TrEMBL record, chain A:
<feature type="transmembrane region" description="Helical">
    <location>
        <begin position="157"/>
        <end position="181"/>
    </location>
</feature>
<feature type="domain" description="ABC transmembrane type-1">
    <location>
        <begin position="112"/>
        <end position="297"/>
    </location>
</feature>
<dbReference type="GO" id="GO:0015833">
    <property type="term" value="P:peptide transport"/>
</dbReference>
<keyword id="KW-0653">Protein transport</keyword>
<keyword id="KW-1003">Cell membrane</keyword>
<feature type="transmembrane region" description="Helical">
    <location>
        <begin position="276"/>
        <end position="297"/>
    </location>
</feature>
<dbReference type="Pfam" id="PF12911">
    <property type="entry name" value="OppC_N"/>
</dbReference>
<dbReference type="GO" id="GO:0005886">
    <property type="term" value="C:plasma membrane"/>
</dbReference>
<feature type="transmembrane region" description="Helical">
    <location>
        <begin position="45"/>
        <end position="67"/>
    </location>
</feature>
<dbReference type="GO" id="GO:0055085">
    <property type="term" value="P:transmembrane transport"/>
</dbReference>
<feature type="transmembrane region" description="Helical">
    <location>
        <begin position="237"/>
        <end position="256"/>
    </location>
</feature>
<protein>
    <submittedName>
        <fullName>Cytochrome c550</fullName>
    </submittedName>
</protein>
<dbReference type="InterPro" id="IPR035906">
    <property type="entry name" value="MetI-like_sf"/>
</dbReference>
<keyword id="KW-0472">Membrane</keyword>
<dbReference type="InterPro" id="IPR025966">
    <property type="entry name" value="OppC_N"/>
</dbReference>
<keyword id="KW-0813">Transport</keyword>
<dbReference type="Pfam" id="PF00528">
    <property type="entry name" value="BPD_transp_1"/>
</dbReference>
Length: 310, 346
């Protein structure tokens, strides 16, 4: 979009991006993005991580086209049960004669769904608590941060376990439980960012113009906290995936016949010794995806946080 | 500090302790409040669970009053809190014992596992982290980093299953799930509940080695997870220390590189490392829920999951509270230790 004017001279687009005197806000932003991207791509592991994450998204979108079989309806129980990996069934078949490869492919949707939902629930909570505490200060700050610390002190998986136990097993409840246990670090970060912004001149200027407190927080403080929060959420993705898979493994996450990876490993546990592929394949998928997010998060942190880089 | 320094230090110390106790109390109170809240949102009616759904209304009402469910919420919480403080979490539906008795029975098994895991993680993780920091940017550094990242990314329950498959089922190097073979389980009397200790003290060496063979896989697994964290933190602390001027001074003095690294730099990195080790210990206690399920290890984690599967909420909440309290305590103790050991934080 914004790069359009420079496309007429392909050799000049780099010069345009790196121009020390950007003509527009867009040009400056793209230029900064380009620099960040260049330093990001110097880290092969981070690029690999990005590749895995992009692959996950693509696989989730195009699952219908990629998966050769149905993820839920199995084949002939007499002849196609627990078959080892072969050319027809790349990852073998499970106890219901379902193709494990297809199930892993469709499982990516559940994983992605969980990550997106947790991020969409936990980030705003953390953002709101953190910015309000940081901006208002005083007793509001003390109370909110005390609550945050209490939640932060809890073991995450155990708390999620107890919540799911109370709410009843299921993917939605698992998402809620994970979200409840993930927001405290975000609140901390948002508060720290807010404290640095709070006394700056532009906030004073907005205040003098008569902006209300909610308007200042939502319109001026929150947007500035977003970028550091997004990095933190990316870094947390792997943890979210592992917690969701752990809940699934314990039978508290997605319920059968949903092809959730953790639950699939739990099924495979019954056939571990003779039909190892039933447990191995979905677990491998969890591992690859969470490694991808970890590599990506590591790379992002190096790019965006100058302190960690050197 | 000059004279009067001892007095000053004592006052500082007492102030820290007081702060520590306040934070501990509020956090534990929060923990109790959360478990109370969780217990209330359970869709199961506890009265019906006791009297059945065909009980006449007056019986239903009486049991409801006996359980204190007709009282205002805040009063219910007060009763719950008073009971929790004395360690009374009610009886487990599954085992019919008081939940606290059950927990006291299973906790040593979890403690044994998590402690050995932390020991392995510390003994391997610190040297690896130091090595990575010293050889920064080299192949070794990348390898240690990758080892850590894999540890962060791999699902613990899956790695446990794969390890069982390889080392128990295929290679037969170690014993399978469980804590000790039935053959040996009556050869010793449980005193501390820590099998390795009990068998060794009673001279039952066959039973001891069998227990070792059972515990080695889960501890190595937990050790690896603790190693991933400890090595990564050691590396960053060491990088920080190695850039300090006193390191240059030590080198200029002509000290051997070994001495500079292990005696000077690591020593200064040791204080934050104490915190890291305590935190990793707390994480292992939490991670034990999944590990114990995989290895059929009769500890607190398995107790919680078993209770979960049987909708035994008293036991689940009691277990959550105990793990939570230990977690909170370890967190705070590590924080306190850090402040006490590092003079710069004063």
């Amino acid at each position: 979009m914004a790069g359009a004017p420079s496309l007429s001279q392909p050799s000049g687009w780099r010069a345009w991006l790196l121009s020390p005197e950007p003509g527009s806000r867009w040009q400056a932003r793209l230029g900064r993005f380009y620099l960040g991207w260049r330093s990001f791509t110097r880290n092969p592991l981070a690029v690999m991580g990005l590749g895995v994450v992009v692959l996950l998204i693509l696989v989730a979108i195009f699952a219908d086209f990629i998966a050769p079989y149905s993820p839920v309806i199995g084949g002939d129980l007499r002849t196609q049960r627990l078959l080892p990996p072969s050319e027809t069934y790349w990852f073998g078949t499970d106890d219901q004669a379902r193709d494990i490869f297809s199930r892993v492919i469709y499982g990516s949707r559940i994983t992605l769904w969980v990550i997106v939902l947790v991020a969409l629930i936990a980030t705003p909570i953390g953002l709101l608590v953190g910015t309000v505490a940081g901006y208002l200060g005083g007793w509001v700050d003390t109370v909110l941060m005390r609550i945050t610390d209490i939640f932060l002190a809890f073991p995450r998986l155990i708390l999620a376990l107890a919540f799911v136990a109370a709410l009843g097993p299921g993917i939605e409840n698992a998402v809620i439980a994970i979200a409840i246990t993930s927001w405290p670090p975000y609140a901390r970060i948002a508060r720290a960012e807010t404290l640095t912004i709070r006394n700056s001149d532009f906030i004073a200027a907005v205040k003098l113009q008569g902006a209300s407190t909610p308007r200042i927080i939502l319109g001026h403080v929150v947007p500035l906290c977003l970028s550091s929060l997004i990095v933190r959420v990316t870094l947390d993705m792997a943890g979210i995936i592992l917690t969701a898979a752990g809940l699934g493994f314990l039978g508290l996450g997605a319920q059968p016949p949903m092809p959730e990876w953790g639950a699939m490993v739990a099924t495979g546990r019954n056939y571990l010794i003779d039909q190892w592929w039933v447990a191995a394949m979905p677990g491998l998928a969890i591992f690859v995806v969470s490694l991808g997010f970890n590599l990506l998060g590591d790379g992002l942190r190096d790019v965006l946080d100058p302190k960690a880089a050197k | 500090m000059q004279r009067g320094g001892g007095h000053e230090a004592l006052r500082f110390f007492l102030k820290r302790i007081a702060q520590f106790l306040i934070v501990l109390a509020t956090t534990l109170l929060g923990l109790v409040a959360v478990t109370f809240f969780i217990g209330r949102i359970v869709p199961i009616d506890p009265v019906i669970a006791i009297v059945g759904d065909r009980a006449p209304p007056h019986v239903y009402e009486r049991v409801r009053q006996e359980l204190g469910l007709d009282l205002p919420m805040i009063q219910q919480f007060w009763i719950y809190l008073k009971k929790a403080v004395t360690g009374d979490f009610g009886n487990s539906v599954l085992t019919t014992n008081p939940v606290m008795t059950d927990i006291a029975n299973v906790f040593p098994a979890t403690l044994e596992l998590a402690t050995l895991g932390t020991v392995i993680g510390t003994l391997v993780g610190i040297p690896l982290g130091v090595l990575a920091a010293v050889k920064r940017g080299t192949f070794i550094d990348q390898l240690v980093r990758l080892l850590g990242l894999v540890g962060y990314s791999i699902p613990i329950f899956w790695l446990g299953l794969m390890a069982l498959l390889l080392f128990y089922a295929k290679l037969g190097w170690v014993a399978g799930p469980g804590r000790i073979d039935v053959t040996y389980s009556y050869l010793y009397t449980p005193v501390t509940g820590i099998v390795l200790f009990d068998t060794a003290m009673q001279g039952q060496w066959d039973a001891f080695w069998d227990a070792v063979s059972h515990i080695i896989l889960p501890t190595c697994l937990l050790g690896y997870f603790s190693l991933a964290y400890i090595s990564r933190m050691t590396r960053s602390f060491m990088l920080n220390e190695l850039a300090q001027e006193y390191v240059i001074a030590a080198r200029v003095k002509g000290l051997s590189e070994m001495r500079v690294i292990w005696r000077h730099a690591l020593r200064n990195a040791a204080v934050p490392l104490v915190t890291v080790i305590a935190l990793s210990y707390a994480n292992l206690l939490e991670g034990s829920v999944l590990t114990e399920t995989v290895f059929a290890w009769p500890g607190l984690g398995q107790y919680i999951t078993n209770s979960l599967q049987n909708a035994d909420m008293n036991a689940v909440l009691g277990g959550t509270l105990v793990i939570g309290a230990v977690f909170v305590l370890l967190n705070l103790v590590s924080d306190l230790l850090y402040r006490l050991l590092d003079p710069r934080t004063r």
